[in-house]
Amino acid sequence: MKKHNFSAGPSILAREVIEKTAQAVLEINGSGLSILEISHRSKDFQAVMDEAVALFKELLAIPEGYSVLFLGGGASMQFCMVPFNFFEKKAAYLNTGVWANKAMKEAKGFGETVEVASSKDRNYNYIPKNFVIPADADYFHITTNNTIYGTEILTDMDSPVPLIADMSSDIFSRPMDVSKYALIYGGAQKNLAPAGLAFVVVKDELLGKVSRYIPTMLNYKTHIAEGSMFNTPPVLPIYSAMETLRWLKANGGLVEMEKKNIAKAELLYNAIDNSKMFVGTAVKEDRSRMNICFVMKPEFQELEADFQKFAQAAGMDGIKGHRSVGGFRASIYNAMPIESVQALVTCMQEFEKLHA
């Protein structure tokens, strides 16, 4: 039976990326050695790093004056690296969910941290609007896609202060204007590579402004100077990231990827909106294209466990919703084919026929 992987992360990768990564684990470039055992200083791996950085810049149309880094520690390490490198007197955060809260908590340890706006009042089912970013803040931090609650910021906002974004779960899902951001970061395990890798895109001229001592490993300038190789980098995830970036380019880049992501999201949201049994949890204008969250309508809630079993038996893997929201979550990242989304829609409709 075919499996359809709707896991929120670690999550689906393109099949050819998995196969090429598996081949590199056995042997890279006819060297007789595995990617797992070659030196990160070798010509073979330096070529991987160089290509991954070049493709990252090409696909996102990153302007001159920005560096791309591949680091360990995941996005959670960036929660403290950001204030270490940017926080001098005051920071501003948009609170749109669990991960935004975790990032804000780290910043509070550095000094005055302002919560510009929050959607906590409605369990984070919307993106706050009409907020004012403090002009005296050192930076403004946003989380563009909220995997747990299924909301997403789909535009590149203007900010009077340096804009920093956690794009762990929607990077490469649409074209974007990188010039509006001081720094973009994320964990790779949702739309780019296996777990264990973080990506950073940072505007070089904004670094080196804080007066504090920054620990060597937490200083972005350290990793820029050493080409992400100050210490041994996460070699295998970087290789896999390179293969994903090759796959993205070969499949039309981000313009084509956005078209496919819109089509997949519309297919599933339309099924939810036209259902007698299911209902979406995020407000329509802020719905995520990456993580579709939905629940049973009140009169059918006792069937949630039954649907979970029904869906799993039909090959739908990873659709259980986060415990703070309940219900179901279908994560439909870049590598998710529309055929799998259609399979979930069919599964939902078949269950509804049996019970509604």
Give a description of the structure.
The protein is of the alpha/beta class. The protein has two domains: 15-250, Type I PLP-dependent aspartate aminotransferase-like (Major domain) (Aspartate Aminotransferase, domain 2); 254-355, Aspartate Aminotransferase, domain 1 (Alpha-Beta Complex), CATH 3.90.1150. The protein is 35% helix and 17% strand. The chain has helices at residues 15-26, 43-60, 74-86, 98-108, 220-225, 235-250, 253-273, 304-313, 338-355, and strands at 4-5, 66-71, 90-95, 112-118, 140-143, 145-146, 151-152, 163-166, 183-187, 198-203, 278-280, 291-296, 316-317, 328-331. The chain has a seven-stranded mixed beta sheet with strand order 2-10-9-8-5-3-4, with helices on both faces. Strands 11-12-14 form a three-stranded antiparallel beta sheet, with helices on one face. Helix 4 (98-108) links the parallel strand 3 and strand 4 (112-118). Helix 2 (43-60) crosses helix 6, helix 3 runs parallel beside helix 4 and helix 7 (253-273) packs parallel to helix 9. The longest helix is centred in the C-terminal third of the chain and has 21 residues, at 253-273. It is globular, with a radius of gyration of 21 Å. The two termini are 27 Å apart. The model has no long low-confidence stretch (mean pLDDT 97).
What is the average of the pLDDT values?
97
Q: Which segments are poorly predicted (pLDDT under 50) over 5 or more consecutive residues?
A: none
CATH topology title of the largest domain:
Aspartate Aminotransferase, domain 2
Compute the CA-based radius of gyration: 21 Å
Distance between the termini: 27 Å
Q: What's the tally of helices?
A: 9
Number of domains: 2
The sequence of SSEs as H and E is: EHHEHEHEEEEEEEHHHEEHEEH
Which class of secondary structure composition applies to the elements? alpha/beta
Report the strand count. 14
Shape: globular
Strand content: 15-25%
- Give the helix level as a range of percent: 25-40%
| CATH architect. name of the largest domain | 3-Layer(aba) Sandwich
Oligomer description: single chain
CATH class of the largest domain, anyone?
A: Alpha Beta
CATH homology group of the largest domain: Type I PLP-dependent aspartate aminotransferase-like (Major domain)
The largest pleated sheet is described as: 7 strands, mixed
- Main-sheet strand order equals 2-10-9-8-5-3-4
